[in-house]
User: What shape does this take?
Amino acid sequence: LAKTTQPISMDSYEGQEVNITCSHNNIATNDYITWYQQFPSQGPRFIIQGYKTKVTNEVASLFIPADRKSSTLSLPRVSLSDTAVYYCLVTNTNAGKSTFGDGTTLTVKP
Amino acid sequence: DAEITQSPRHKITETGRQVTLACHQTWNHNNMFWYRQDLGHGLRLIHYSYGVQDTNKGEVSDGYSVSRSNTEDLPLTLESAASSQTSVYFCASSESLAGGGEQFFGPGTRLTVL
Assistant: This one.
């Protein structure tokens, strides 16, 4: 599975839009990009998954350019409760296993 | 409601002892996974299973074993606990392999090996 690289940490303020970019230069044809959120002392929680272009759900959007070597998770109008670690994963359609990196710690300030 | 549970939530043991961590899911998912998370780091895959009687090694499987005798359970055994295995252990399950499949995680077990 392709290795991912994402910023170690980011700070934001309540009400702002936050964009977290992840690079995955060696992504394969059958790979998807998946994002998880983890709060302290809890297991990760699925946020969004995509293959190409743009995917949007009730909590986030995922932008994937045509070459798929990077992706951007967009969180609209963050609140203090969005403070968490966000993981970008490359997941293979032929195998359920995933590789987590160290994630991006997002801190939302009042 | 369907869920995934882990027990115990906290465990303290001594070096050399055998320890078994339980994972139980009621979604009837075929796919189950065990991860460990060391302080300040991401999750690393220990073992995974795609169905009954199927088990596979992940990236950090040395010193761990799993067995899958039914759909609901995937217990993780530390054969001879070592201090390096002090960590938080998460179990997860998923229904589909498509796109890697959305994984549902348990609450975790904090294991301390003295």
